[in-house]
Amino acid sequence: xxxxxxxxxxxxxxxxxxxxxxxxxxxxxxxxxxxxxxxxxxxxxxxxxxxxxxxxxxxxxxxxxxxxxxxxxxxxxxxxxxxxxxxxxxxxxxxxxxxxxxxxxxxxxxxxxxxxxxxxxxxxxxxxxxxxxxxxxxxxxxxxxxxxxxxxxxxxxxxxxxxxxxxxxxxxxxxxxxxxxxxxxxxxxxxxxxxxxxxxxxxxxxxxxxxxxxxxxxxxxxxxxxxxxxxxxxxxxxxxxxxxxxxxxxxxxxxxxxxxxxxxxxxxxxxxxxxxxxxxxxxxxxxxxxxxxxxxxxxxxxxxxxxxxxxxxxxxxxxxxxxxxxxxxxxxxxxxxxxxxxxxxxxxxxxxxxxxxxxxxxxxxxxxxxxxxxxxxxxx
Amino acid sequence: xxxxxxxxxxxxxxxxxxxxxxxxxxxxxxxxxxxxxxxxxxxxxxxxxxxxxxxxxxxxxxxxxxxxxxxxxxxxxxxxxxxxxxxxxxxxxxxxxxxxxxxxxxxxxxxxxxxxxxxxxxxxxxxxxxxxxxxxxxxxxxxxxxxxxxxxxxxxxxxxxxxxxxxxxxxxxxxxxxxxxxxxxxxxxxxxxxxxxxxxxxxxxxxxxxxxxxxxxxxxxxxxxxxxxxxxxxxxxxxxxxxxxxxxxxxxxxxxxxxxxxxxxxxxxxxxxxxxxxxxxxxxxxxxxxxxxxxxxxxxxxxxxxxxxxxxxxxxxxxxxxxxxxxxxxxxxxxxxxxxxxxxxxxxxxxxxxxxxxxxxxxx
Amino acid sequence: xxxxxxxxxxxxxxxxxxxxxxxxxxxxxxxxxxxxxxxxxxxxxxxxxxxxxxxxxxxxxxxxxxxxxxxxxxxxxxxxxxxxxxxxxxxxxxxxxxxxxxxxxxxxxxxxxxxxxxxxxxxxxxxxxxxxxxxxxxxxxxxxxxxxxxxxxxxxxxxxxxxxxxxxxxxxxxxxxxxxxxxxxxxxxxxxxxxxxxxxxxxxxxxxxxxxxxxxxxxxxxxxxxxxxxxxxxxxxxxxxxxxxxxxxxxxxxxxxxxxxxxxxxxxxxxxxxxxxxxxxxxxxxxxxxxxxxxxxxxxxxxxxxxxxxxxxxxxxxxxxxxxxxxxxxxxxxxx
Lengths: 380, 364, 336
Known about the structure:
The complex is a heterotrimer of chains A (about 375), B (about 375) and C (about 325). With about 375 residues, chain A is an alpha+beta fold. Chain A contains 13 helices and nine strands. The radius of gyration of chain A is 33 Å and the shape is elongated.
């Protein structure tokens, strides 16, 4: 913009500040993603930022019981391996909870009555005793293992099957797609009428749409819930149906849709519409053949908006679709998990990432249209 | 037969603003009519009322002897070329031209034939598959005209079609429109512009509008030579006619007027005796003023305050004692006259104009 | 699979039904009152009739939906606020009396005010700063895209993300929440952030600021680009420095847009509900109006009267913005 301001120290400051802000803004999401693909044992004991470094774990285990002993020469020996994960490495071990790191791996630890314990770095251990091992339980072994980073999709596998997220994913799609398309159709027609047709009450309707733009939708919930119960009774179906939630999302999305689209359609050159009129086109022809193709950017941007909004919505889904398993959408499922599995971060992070992956893809691939739509609504 | 007849036509907006007041106009079949006037005079509104895009508040509009006030645009037998061309940006040139016929459910072969014929005529055949955005300004303009032609209208309406073109293209397109008119002698054309050169060069008759009224209707030369009032006199011609207040000193076959205490002019304009001593306006076009050598040869003298050399002509701006406004004289070629010089001017008597105190011309 | 199929069928039916209505009704209108041919007088009459009917064919569904889903509920909420928990018995203003005597209400009202002050201000401020800075660097668009990204994340998803950041482990366990890890790294005591009364509100607000800054940034960035370069160049020639240019030349020219951004976020804040529900459900003094209303709707079978009263309060708070919006839209209409 200003030639002289290039390459000044200020510019580097700007670069640094923006970088800092970008890092702050992305880190939460990045943390979630990295955590969701970590091994669940590691996830719960170390921060996700350590995911790439080897972690040290202190573990208590029991050796095999006396039934596994074998006589080797004049010693009774119990052999086994402590590690389930082959790439881990035992560094220290001990046999008492007071001194869990008393010996380095490979050392021979003297226990009572001539008994010895030896743990090798690869986890192989040998308990030997001059007398026969007695009792039913195995000796406790304390050891410290270095576990290399481990990434896995197990968390996703688990939430998609066991936690019912797959079903919720389908439910979310079933809710979202019609709840995106129907308001676009309804709003586009209304927006054209409000922009280019002449009829009494037009200004009043535009004002009403703008007014309804800010009505908190919580206002609507109680009366609508009552109405839905009545209607559901009348038709002999439950009050919580897909049609019900589609229409609810349509109704709530309409003010913004009409407002955005009207702004855009009213901004189309009037002479094109007049020209079509002189060419003999009726309003319906004009709408189908001129307005719809020319409004594509605005329609696309509203579609993205509505898609994100419906997909991410929790409130309307909870009220109009309910909490029962077969209708639960992703956001609802995530909230349930947050309540029931609040401490199980491997489940929460993977579930959260599944709920946000679709909107993120939509967002990054269609960002251009989204921005355009935002601008059509706000900067005038 | 495609006469257009307007009788007592008015346009009043809902806020009681009268944009057009009592318009009466007879347009003959095959005429090229130009509506001209300053911006806001209502010329575009008048055109849009003829097209059917604006409602007619009062009066009747007849096309071909049929009252069409309530008939939709498409059934009036008109076609319109818009200022911005109004091409459908998402359709190819072909589809743009075919649109009206498709709406009218004309058969495919017939559409194809008419579109290709129009494209041929306008040299648009190589561009039929292109989108409007891939065309130059002049080509877009031709597509807009082509779109009008395929409808075979009785009346063509042009709404300032050249104002979006640059100067060179404007001249070329002007000639094309003139040619188009020649090839379709039976079509009536109504053309709106604010540019008097376009009006003068294209029109059979000019309709000059101002503030919702028709000031004068006539051929271009009629308007130039015999302006009906001061407004027309000043609007047609560039630079505008010099019009100065004066007093009628002597009436009769030859009217004598005084521009100031020292300047009296004799004009071959007839006035009634009752006009004696009335205030009036004297007018003479800058290009009708001639620089003469001596004061005796001329009828007014002034000091040059400003000189504009245009090459093909020179404009002299004079302060004349007793006259408030500057007098402009346009002389062919270049002159040596400099600021501060005193020059003497004469004019042929028949080139002089005289308007009464209501700014209406005394007819000769 | 069966569910997928039935979902597809219902989806198609819903969308088709909508399309069929618009197409059918308009074609029918053209059939009943043909305007494309016929004797002139009849066409003129038909045209008048269809021009009167058609706007309502276009607007019909929208008007019905808006009335049923927004207009009628507003009216009915006002009515319900004077009725008892089931909405059957008129109880006068006792719901209002209850509301203004309830500590919970004042807690949520105070919190809502805090949200209303902090979130729009912070989001607009960060948005403006980031918009200004990203316009000057070559990788600005990438930066913008990343900061804009949280817009796509649901409130509930964002809550999980931030709950993870605020996570707290007692004792000597390693902190897996980033915030506590940083605190520990610098030698501080780890805290259970979302349970610290009063300050926990701010930890919840950060989530919404994180989401909304991108929105503010995108819009303000476009507004900043709309500022004519000449005005800035003139200021440079007049000897203004960067800060002066920003505050005295650029910001005044985009006041209108800043106001729009501010009000848009304000409205959103009034409706904020998911974040509080997911993070604390109003515990530890973090209740807000929207969540309180939701609570009353469903707590113990639901108390519609009290829920409606809280809704009315939210509505009253929105009204000034509504009026301002309508005025602005009217001014815009006249400008056309």
